[in-house]
């Protein structure tokens, strides 16, 4: 069985640190892989795929910020869901954007879930716990 990891696309260093701290504080053992923009995310997945040697090395899910440099989350989401190798990876939009039009647009592009980043560390811990529990323990994703 392959070790599950979580891919986090987040350009803000403080947010990356808080995410890493939250996962560690909850005692989760999955490796977190961080990328800072959409270009890095796509390069990361293509590199993983190229080195997989027939094993499923895709992340358990992707936490995707919308507002990133080089290639934003909307562009990445569209690219992921149009790619037959990556479209099954659950993509959780994890952003500060609360705009209803943006939320609808992300679901139209294929987002699996849209979550507005919580304010405060305790709320982040609860949100991470819910995401982790649902996507790694409850939901069933085709191989």
TrEMBL record:
Keywords in alphabetical order: Phosphoprotein
CDD domains: REC_Rcp-like
RNA-binding in keyword set: no
BP-aspect Gene Ontology terms: phosphorelay signal transduction system
Family annotation (InterPro entries): CheY-like_superfamily (IPR011006), Sig_transdc_resp-reg_receiver (IPR001789), TCS_response_regulator (IPR052893)
Entry protein name: Response regulatory domain-containing protein
Species assigned in the record: Flavihumibacter petaseus NBRC 106054
Pfam families per UniProt: Response_reg
Span of domain Response regulatory: 5-132
4-aspartylphosphate: modified positions: 65
């Amino acid at each position: 069985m392959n070790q599950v990891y979580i891919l986090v696309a987040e350009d803000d260093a403080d947010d990356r640190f808080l995410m890493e701290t939250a996962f560690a504080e909850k005692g989760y053992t999955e490796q977190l892989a961080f990328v800072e923009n959409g270009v890095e995310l796509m390069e990361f997945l293509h590199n993983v795929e190229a080195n997989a040697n027939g094993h499923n090395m895709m992340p358990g899910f992707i936490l995707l910020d919308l507002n990133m440099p080089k290639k934003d989350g909307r562009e990445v989401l569209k690219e992921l869901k149009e790619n037959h190798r990556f479209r099954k990876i659950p993509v959780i939009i994890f952003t500060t954007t609360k705009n209803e039009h943006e939320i609808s647009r992300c679901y139209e592009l294929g987002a699996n879930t849209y979550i507005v980043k919580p304010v405060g560390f305790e709320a982040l811990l609860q949100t991470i716990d819910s995401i982790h529990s649902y996507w790694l323990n409850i939901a069933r994703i085709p191989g």
